[in-house]
Specification:
It is a single chain. The protein has 2 domains: 2-194, Rossmann fold, CATH 3.40.50.150; 204-265, Helicase, Ruva Protein, domain 3 (Orthogonal Bundle). Helices cover 35% and strands 17% of the residues. It is built from 10 helices and 9 strands. α3 links the parallel β2 and β3 (66-70). The longest helix has 15 residues, at 251-265. The chain is elongated and about 65 Å long.
Length: 266
């Protein structure tokens, strides 16, 4: 318990409900897994930020190979003592070459730290050919943003970039009282499974630039927010999309915009 008290002093929040931990673990291996994703139900698992190991224990019980990345040395020591079967890699997830951890595909899961959750998902995108399934818990508003459909007010950069490659599902809320100490916000659990897209159909770097530029001025229409690209409307199948705000556009429309920007620059 010394470790838990020390972490409280650092302002960290630990899940204290085993039933919630079991539901999170089941998001990548349980009966609720979508039919299309069940072929990945036995691949290795990489857990980000295991903390005191409440989720890790359920992942180990699944019989799958599990590795956990933990940056905090006190947590690493605790996990070695209390969960010796867990393969703990000490280090910064955001700085790691994930391709060295497993020889092939792996699932990503975790109770993601609120302050770096977006960065974690951006990094996962870079390894999308290796990570067919992602699940875990993060701040509810971020999870809802990732899963937001076109037209939703909370739709943003992460929504479009992740939905280009993954089917995104918001699974359930987790109340503050399920943590020690309780955070000031509600958490949310989501699951992402790789979709059937194999090629983006446009320049990937330019796609990111177009999406980030559009949402960088989200109150403006696409025509105004992308004005610096000197986009030729005639290169669009439906030029009327330029009158929309970015949250209204689908992934396919952003791909079309990216190709139009590329053609206008040529």
């Amino acid at each position: 318990m010394k470790e838990v008290r020390a972490k409280k002093a650092l302002g960290q929040h630990f899940l204290n409900d085993p039933a919630i931990a079991a539901r999170i673990a089941a998001a990548i291996a349980g009966p609720s897994l979508p039919e299309a994703a069940r072929r990945w139900s036995d691949i290795p698992v990489l857990e980000v930020g295991p903390g005191m190991g409440i989720l890790s224990a359920f992942l180990l019980d699944s019989g799958r190979q599990v590795k956990a990345v933990e940056i905090d040395s006190e947590s690493v020591g605790y996990l070695h003592r209390c969960l010796p079967a867990l393969d703990v890699v000490e280090g910064d997830f955001l700085e790691m070459d994930l391709s060295t951890l497993f020889p092939g595909e792996f699932a990503l899961i975790g109770n993601y730290p609120y302050n770096i959750s977006s960065q974690i998902f951006f990094k996962a995108l870079d390894y999308r050919e290796r990570i067919p399934v992602i699940a875990g818990m993060l701040q509810k508003e971020v999870a809802e943003r990732i899963c937001a459909a076109p037209g939703g007010r909370v739709r943003g950069i992460l929504s479009v970039l992740l939905q280009a490659w993954y089917d995104c599902e918001y699974l359930f809320d987790v109340a503050p009282g399920k943590f020690t100490p309780p955070p000031k916000v509600t958490s949310g659990v989501l699951r992402l499974t790789r979709n059937s897209r194999t090629e983006l159909g446009c320049d990937g770097r330019l796609f990111r630039t177009v999406v980030k530029t559009a949402f960088g001025q989200r109150r403006k229409t696409i025509r105004n927010s992308l004005g610096s690209f000197n986009l030729d409307p005639s290169r669009l199948a439906d030029p009327e999309m330029l009158q929309l705000r970015p949250e209204r556009l689908t992934v396919e429309q952003f791909i079309e915009l990216t190709n139009a920007v590329a053609a206008s620059k040529a």
